[in-house]
Structure formats: structure tokens, C-alpha cells
User: What shape does this take?
Amino acid sequence: MASRVIPVDPFDLVIFGGTGDLARRKILPGLFRRYCAGQMPAEARIIGAARSDMSNTEYRRLIGEALEEFGAADGKNQKDVTEFLQRIEYIAIDAMGKSGWKALAKALRKNVVHAFNFSVGPALFGPLAERLHENGIADTQSRIVVEKPFGHDLASAKELNATLAQYFDERQIYRIDHYLGKETVQNLMAVRFGNILFEPLWNAQYIDHVQITVAETVGVGGRGEYYDKSGAMRDMVQNHLMQLLCLTAMEPPAKFDPNAVRDEKLKVIRALRPVANGDLVRGQYSAGSDTPSYAEEAENPSSTTESFIAMKIDIENWRWNGTPFYLRTGKRMRARLSEIVVRFKEPPHSIFDEDAGSNANELTIRLQPNEGMDMMVTIKEPGPGGMRLVQVPLDMTFADVLGSDGSDVPDAYERLIMDVIRGNQTLFMRGDEVEAAWAWTDPIIEGWESRGDKPNLYEPGTAGPEEALMLMHKDGRRWRDLKP
Ligand code: BG6
Assistant: This one.
């Protein structure tokens, strides 16, 4: 089924950090794919900005190479590549100084959407906002796009919000959490609120627990310096897993509107009970037969940073009281897999013999790979020999049922950038939401830091440390298998 493409309004998109990894790997290939899909109008223009001096031709060459390196250009779409590159310009700008800003002001056209993507380190977010303002480049209709990490803790996030608020209204600030741009993450809202089937059962009366897993097989690689100061809690839980939890747990918003959705997510974060020490497991991967240990990759032999974290979270509200959410995420695990598992309770009374088997339903929403949903339902095991129950999946792999291999589905960045141009903030984090997430995260981190806790080592290619399995076992539950 081909997707419907509605072109966005004409725009000038300025990418600060235009020669950097994120711009080359994600943003520009994403824009190119939207161009090929017919979503970029003829008047759309992209301006790369960075410190080094470079001509338009040199920058276009750099981006052309990036399109090839990151799979957007495949040799068959050379005409598209050439046309797309014609829309790209380059301006050398000193983010902290004065040079380049006049040229940028001159280059921007009137009567088109102006979006400024801060694809730079967080230390430059404030200075860039200030320069845009003092050079008269941004107006009340401009938008800024701020990449992760948004702060390191509550204090720094508040400071950053306050700095940006000096120059921009909240409606102009687009804080990226790329998980929100993922197709299946949005589908979670469609499934929950587009069907009558699930919502009546979506509460503590019928749901035993929820599991959210984001497992990766890669290690920290060349990002050790950033990651060692961050760890899985700051890098993944405070943002991506928190968003998944919110979308699973939130009340139905009155409409699919940015503030209605974000109000409901915020209420969930504010209802999270502080996590008890015994409900938390931190891990760090050891060396494998052909892979270095975390400490080696991070070049910090005495590092106590976690590359894995699992926790049990209680939500203190009417809907979820008594139904825990178990979260886990880690690097160098057995499989690359992100999923949400909703485990329902058993029917209140079984009419079958005790040895007939268990009959609890389980809904799994697979975010990646192999996007889809499956629902375990109980049926009679076919054949003679009395009533024996088995659980079988009602499996819906989206690529199969929608008759698409997924190649026409925009990736997270493509969708999010187009939403910026459309002026739709639904899939972006609001300032108060980010602060609430840090307010919940900070005491947990302070707890293990003040106790001097060390993470448990786990072997690469596993499901994390043994202790993480125990976290559920002690409640009489188990994680769903992490199958490669
Ligand atoms: C990023 C984290 O935000 O998300 C990375 O900084 C992580 O550490 C990545 O690898 C995971 O994203 P995805 O889309 O590959 O699941």
C-alpha cells in the first residue's frame, strides 16, 4: 500500500553542525528521501552551516558522498541526487562569534518557513539561540530543533529551557526524541485509541504487568567519552524508554493535538513512584571472545557507568495501581530488539482442569525490527485427549498485512523534520515534560552514586546480568525471551 504524500510548505532549513555525523548520517539522507517521495516543494532549500570554510560545490560533494555512504543514494537515482543537491547551500558560521551571521540573514528568504536545526553539542544550544536572536534572524514564526541530550540532570535542563525561553516561545521549540518519530511508536497511539477492543481492558484490573525492552547488540564504540558520563539511564531511560512508558500508560487525550497528548504524558511522569534500590539492576558488559569490554571501549578501566539497566516502576494513579512496568535496556545484548509486552491477567475463574494450562493473553508491540503486533490467545490444542489449552499468536507483521516492505515508510528523522516544517509539535517533547523526566531520574542516579554502587558485569550476547532476571523472578514473572 503506497503511502499518501502531502507536500509541506516552502522552507529554508538551516542545519547548524551541517558537516557533522548526525547531519550526514540521518538528517540529509532523510531529507533526500522525502524529496524523492515528493514531499519537498520546489521552493524548499537547505543551508548547511558549520565553522570550516567551504564552497557550495564542496559542501554538495560532501553531502553527495554522505547520501551514498548512508544508503540513500543507490546509483539508480542519480538524477534525483543531482536535483536535490542543487537545493543545498553552505555558509561558514562561527556559533560563538560574529562571523557568518550577516551572510545567513541575507540568505534567508521572506515568506517561507524558517527552521534552524541545532545538530551540535548541547553547549552550543544557548549561544546559537542568542545569535539568531541578536542578529535579527529568527522571528516569531521561526522554529528551532534541539537534539538530544537535553540537559544532564534537572538543573541543567531547567537552565537550558530558561535560556531558550529568552529568545523563543515554547511553540517554536522542537525537542527531538527520535523514538517518537518511529512508525510503530505512533502506532501505539493508533492501536490504543483507534480500537474499542483494548481500552476497556487497559488498566490494573486486567493487566498483570507491562515490559518494555530496548536491547541493542552494538557496544558504545567510538562514543565512549560521551557515554561514560551518561550511562544507560541518561542515554536511554530518561528519554526513549520514558516516552514508550508514557504512551503505553497515559489516559486518552481529548484529541490528537500536541498539547493534549503532552499533557497526558506529563501526568504519567509525575505519577511515577521513586524507584526503590531493590527494584533496580545496573550492568556493564565484560569482554567477549572478540569484543572489548565496556571499560576498554570507554577507555576508563575503573568506570562504574552502566551499559545496561533494568527496573521495576510503579505508577501511582487509579489506572495502574498494583500493575508494575518493567523496563530494561542495554548494549551488547543477545539481540537488537525493541518491544512493549502487555501481559494480561488470567480470567477470574477457570472452567478447565488445573492441568489444562495457563490462559493469560499477551499483547506484544514490536517496534523494531520486524515491526508489528502479536497477541497470544488461548485455544484448545487440536486433537483427542480431552481439553488441553495452548497459546497461539495472532500475528500481524505490518510489512505482510500492509503489503509493503517498509521502504516507503519514513524513518524517524524524516518524519520529525517534516513535522517541524508543518508546525506540528505532537511528536516533540515539551519543556516541562523533559524537566519532569529529569526530576524522576535524578534521585535514582544520586542514590547509586552516594552508595558507590558498582554495576554487575554481564557477558556480551546475553540478556544482561543474572540479577535482571531475578528482578522479575522474585515477583513470579519473567521477561519475554530475547530472541535474535
Ligand atoms: C540514541 C542513543 O539516542 O539512541 C544511543 O544515544 C542508542 O546510545 C540509540 O544506540 C538507539 O536508537 P535506535 O533508533 O537505533 O533504537
